[in-house]
Amino acid sequence: MRPLVVAIAIAAFALAARAGGADAYDDVIAALGAQVEIELHEAAVEETAGMVAAPCVDPTRSAWIVAAPALTAADIASITVVERFPPVPGALEVRFTEAGAVKNRQLTTRLNGKWIGVTLNGKILTMITVKAPSDAASIVTTKMSEAQIAALCDAFTRTHPAHDGK
User: Which of 3, 18, 42, 86 is paired with 101 by a 20 to 30 Å CA distance?
Assistant: First the structure.
């Protein structure tokens, strides 16, 4: 077989596997058990003083984060699938508690135009660039399928009792 044909065959196989859901995100979602810890960290895509290398769900990516999270699962009221953005697959909405909204506003104001790393059980799930300060809710885009996001939302809801919004 010619190299181009082999490359096309490999690419087609990879796309078929991706379409079937066989990817690193499936492994992470399958491993969600009794604990679903989501944190937001100040982050960078290259080595930066004061930050530590962080493992990523996508093994082809590299990320560095400030070790202490800016927001934790205790600051999150809910995570839901974003249904109002059909052209943006992989989007989820993170709603914050009252205290979390204050922290999120401070973080997104300080990091406007910079990176935030969203970790899931210690691994970078996605890196987002802050487009504008936000407070009560943020839209986060990922490379996850809608089914994977729905499973993540269900697991978070199951493992974190409803907050009273405070």
Answer: 86
Give the residue among 152, 162, 161 at the shortest CA–CA distance from 125.
Answer: 152
Burial string for 84-111 (b: 16+ CB within 10 Å, else e) reads eeeeeebbbbbbbbeebbebbeebbeeb
Q: What is the pLDDT of residues 72-128, one digit of tens each?
A: 999 999 988 887 655 567 888 899 999 999 999 999 999 999 999 999 888 898 899
Structure tokens at 132: 């504008």
Q: What is the mean pLDDT of the chain?
A: 80
Alpha-carbon distance 129 to 111, whole Å? 9
Indicate the residue type of 58. D
Residue 9 lies in a domain: no
Whether the CB-CB separation of 152 and 30 falls below 8 Å is answered with: no
Contact 24, 14 (CB under 8 A): no
| pTM score | 0.77
Kindly report the CATH number assigned to the domain that includes residue 123: 3.30.1360.200
Provide the number of structural domains found in the chain. Answer: 1
Q: Note down the domain range covering 27.
A: 23-159
